Amino acid sequence: MEKLTGLNKLKTAVFISGTGSNLKNLIKFSKIKKTPISINLVISNIHNAKGLKYADLTNIKKKIFSFKDTKDTEKKILILLKKEKINFICLAGFMKILTKNFIKEFDGKIINIHPSLLPKYKGLNTHHRAIMNKDQFAGCTVHYVTEKLDSGKIIMQKKIKIANKDSAISLAKKILRQEHKLYPAAIMKVLINP
Q1: Per-residue pLDDT tens digits for 51-77
Q2: Hey, is 11 helix, strand or coil?
Q3: Out of 47, 114, 127, 180, which one is annotated catalytic?
Q4: Using CB atoms within 10 A of its CB, is residue 80 exposed (0-12), middle (13-18) or buried (19+)?
Q5: pTM surpassing 0.90?
Q6: CATH classification code of 9-107
Q7: Coil, strand, or helix at residue 156?
Q8: Domains 9-107 and 113-194 are alike in CATH topology
């Protein structure tokens, strides 16, 4: 990916499905002087996703897509992304798998944050699975998005120790705090110091 300098911030879309804490964090990150991104669009597949309020609060354009027909929906999203001149995508708790054709259009320009130390625990219930397997460590990963679920090249990871008293809920909270540090750091790595 091309190196960015000064004011030419990459127009970015964030895809969400849930509470949007990573979206909120990325919006904050996009406002700092040295950031390489501006968030211009929020896309959700859930019409009442809590995270959409952060788009409203910051006057960022938002759009909801139902994904009843994935092929048709992705076509519509690509048209919108082109219209808005979006050239970078951050997935932040987006619970849909994008198809090969969609990913090809944004090759190497879609990244995701996942709440496990990939390649361990792709998919859902990562914290529960880590605890059930008596893992010593858990964490989060930012990776490039490919057509295979949670399988793209790893950009950065953050590892934390699992305490004996941790539940899936307490572990999720701890890891979320790390996600909020890791995602901006990974964006800097991808766009500023590739």
Answers
A1: 999 999 999 999 999 999 999 999 999
A2: strand
A3: 114
A4: middle
A5: yes
A6: 3.40.50.170
A7: strand
A8: yes
